[in-house]
């Protein structure tokens, strides 16, 4: 069973249908689809497949550096953000780490691979699934080698308090703790600057970014890691296998960050659909729903006798079951925000599952 969303084929086989017949709410991908600017560029440059990419990916790193007003030496692009989670852990080789739970599974797997001792900072419904000042106390008391933090969190979609986030950055700096901040979904928040502008002030701060979700290119896969420590980035680049990014993913990174019409259209779509879907889900008495900041919504089914993922599969809708996240139960789920028509189909199916509407 896949640990991630997007395992449509597996679920289609389970219920005896084609993958094309299932609406996938389990993977948080922009429903606007791949930008036309990229489709046009790929078709025009198909010949890129006939030669090796530049092993240094200079044009890609230059484009990312321009987008973030930093130097190419501060950036390492990769085959999705996941490759870079493993790369930074391999470089740091921490003996102890603090993880917020629930959280993205790959942090834990990467840390386990290097034999790291993992301490959990559990977040629960009682604290709104958000960290608070106790996290700062835990960092000082524990002094782990590194802390992973996702802004917004996956699967809850929640952003930590801005003042608290700054306090965490300062605390890690003072305690010499490497802070890896995963901003994979931050592009969906038009007003969030993220921590990239602060990299120069905090050499042990590493920021992860993904282009896969926002620009709807999960089949191409592209992410990047930024740090103010150029020596660290240089060493990670030397340690990696060559050519982990395919030619078309590299091409994507060279052009899509300049596609302002697509970026604006995405923010417009989300500004309409996010409040609509949250409000509709909230009207269902069988659900407890959290108002996230990103392009997905976290919820708990208050009817434990219903396996919501299986029930919706009968309606050819796949949602993300969150039982395999530490700290969550079989009653927790995550749904992507999709097109207006798909979102309406989800609500209709839920109303039928719960026997009203």
From TrEMBL:
Organism of this sequence: Yersinia aleksiciae
Broad class of enzyme this protein falls into: lyase
Protein name: threonine-phosphate decarboxylase
Chain's role: Decarboxylates L-threonine-O-3-phosphate to yield (R)-1-amino-2-propanol O-2-phosphate, the precursor for the linkage between the nucleotide loop and the corrin ring in cobalamin.
InterPro entries for the chain: Aminotransferase_I/II_large, CobD, NHTrfase_class1_PyrdxlP-BS, PyrdxlP-dep_Trfase, PyrdxlP-dep_Trfase_major, PyrdxlP-dep_Trfase_small
Entry keywords, A to Z: Cobalamin biosynthesis, Lyase, Pyridoxal phosphate
SUPFAM superfamilies: PLP-dependent transferases
EC number(s) from the headed UniProt entry: 4.1.1.81
Cofactor(s) in the UniProt record: pyridoxal 5'-phosphate
């Amino acid at each position: 069973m896949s640990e991630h969303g997007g395992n449509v084929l597996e679920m289609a086989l389970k219920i005896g249908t084609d993958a094309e017949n299932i609406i996938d709410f389990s993977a948080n991908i922009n429903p606007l689809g791949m930008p036309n600017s990229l489709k046009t560029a790929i078709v025009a440059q198909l010949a890129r497949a006939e030669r090796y990419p530049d092993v240094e990916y200079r044009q890609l790193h230059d484009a990312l550096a321009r987008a973030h007003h930093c130097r190419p030496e501060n950036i390492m692009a990769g085959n999705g953000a996941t490759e870079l989670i493993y790369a930074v852990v391999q470089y740091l080789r921490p003996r102890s780490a603090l993880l917020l739970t629930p959280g993205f599974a790959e942090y834990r797997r990467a840390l386990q691979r290097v034999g790291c001792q993992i301490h959990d900072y559990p977040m629960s419904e009682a604290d709104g699934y958000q960290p608070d000042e106790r996290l700062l106390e835990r960092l000082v008391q524990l002094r782990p080698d590194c802390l992973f933090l996702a802004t917004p969190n996956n699967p809850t979609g929640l952003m930590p308090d801005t003042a608290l986030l700054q306090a965490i950055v300062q605390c890690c700096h003072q305690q010499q703790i490497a802070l890896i901040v995963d901003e994979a979904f931050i592009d969906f928040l038009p007003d969030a600057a993220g921590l990239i502008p602060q990299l120069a002030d905090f050499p042990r701060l590493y920021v992860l970014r993904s282009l896969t979700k926002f620009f709807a290119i999960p089949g191409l896969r592209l992410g990047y890691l930024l740090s103010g420590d150029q020596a660290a980035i240089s060493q990670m680049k030397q340690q990696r296998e060559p050519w982990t990014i395919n030619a078309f993913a590299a091409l994507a990174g060279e052009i899509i960050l300049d596609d302002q019409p697509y970026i604006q259209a995405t923010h417009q779509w989300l500004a309409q659909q996010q409040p609509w879907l949250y409000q509709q889900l909230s009207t269902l008495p069988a659900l407890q729903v959290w108002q996230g900041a990103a392009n997905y919504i976290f919820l708990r089914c208050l009817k434990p006798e219903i396996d919501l993922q299986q029930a919706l599969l009968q309606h050819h809708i796949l949602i993300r079951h969150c039982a395999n996240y530490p700290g969550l139960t079989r009653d927790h789920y995550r749904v992507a925000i999709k097109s207006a028509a798909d979102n309406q189909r989800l609500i209709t199916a839920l109303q039928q599952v719960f026997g009203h509407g």
